[in-house]
Amino acid sequence: TIKACIFDLDGVIVDTAVYHYKAWKRLANSLGFDFTEHQNEQLKGVSRVRSLQLILGWGGVTKTEAEQEQLATQKNIWYMEMVNQMKPEEILPGAKEFLTTCRKVGLKTALGSASKNSMTILEKIGITDMFDAVIDGNKVSKAKPDPEVFLAGAQALGVLPEECVVFEDAIAGVEAAVAGDMKVVGIGSPDVLTGANLVIKGLDEMTLDKLYKL
Ligand code: G6P
Ligand code: MG
């Protein structure tokens, strides 16, 4: 039986995936190269440091660890400039409604995100109190596709992994959920999120009926 829903943040609850992409693109461009939207798919769900390493690799650029730290900080400054402009209306269609539905029928809810900025974003859009637990990039050491973030979520909620459904827009996130023995609903394209049990375009397409049929 399904007892809990665990939600990724970027690209599932809010469209910050676009802000991440813009900020990384700006950083790459400042270093004299660019990367494609297809390459960007590989960054989704991936930690800040690991994302930078992937991008530097694509550009064939080598940086020292100190330089990498500086570049990651710069990216986060540009990213937070966009986040700080966010309004509650920027919550993705259906997200708040589905969270409310889950809570009404007694399903537990958790956030499971790699982002160290999760709490700031939840506060910006005013939905902090809709989660029974928040597991973010400050609380885990192993990044998706490692299941740590979702397993920690299940534990915090007091449920078993197989009683959880994860909502994810990232390939690495879908893999993490599968590795954690959880059901997973992909948010995006079925061609990209091949490992998911079900793929929908957004939470506005999600229903309890679909959830219980997983
Ligand atoms: C999420 C996003 C990634 C991002 C990561 C870390 O998983 O999908 O694009 O790199 O969080 O986010 P942060 O806000 O800590 O840089
Ligand atoms: Mg995401």
UniProtKB/TrEMBL annotation:
SUPFAM superfamilies: HAD-like. Gene3D superfamilies: HAD superfamily/HAD-like, Putative phosphatase, domain 2. The active site is at D8 (proton donor/acceptor), D10 (proton donor/acceptor). Its EC number is 5.4.2.6. One of its GO terms (biological process) is carbohydrate metabolic process. Binds 2 magnesium ions per subunit. One of its GO terms (molecular function) is magnesium ion binding. It comes from the Bacteria. Mg(2+) binds at D8, D10, E168, D169. Pfam families: Hydrolase (PF00702). Keywords: Carbohydrate metabolism, Isomerase, Magnesium, Metal-binding, Phosphoprotein. The record marks S113, K144 as: Important for catalytic activity and assists the phosphoryl transfer reaction to Asp8 by balancing charge and orienting the reacting groups. Substrate binds at residues 8-10, 24, 43-48, 51, 75, 113-117, 144. Its cofactor is Mg(2+). InterPro entries: B-phosphoglucomutase_hydrolase, Beta-PGM, Beta-PGM-like, HAD-like_sf, HAD-SF_hydro_IA, HAD_sf, PGP-like_dom2. It catalyses: beta-D-glucose 1-phosphate = beta-D-glucose 6-phosphate. Belongs to the HAD-like hydrolase superfamily. CbbY/CbbZ/Gph/YieH family. This is Beta-phosphoglucomutase. It comes from Mucilaginibacter gossypiicola.
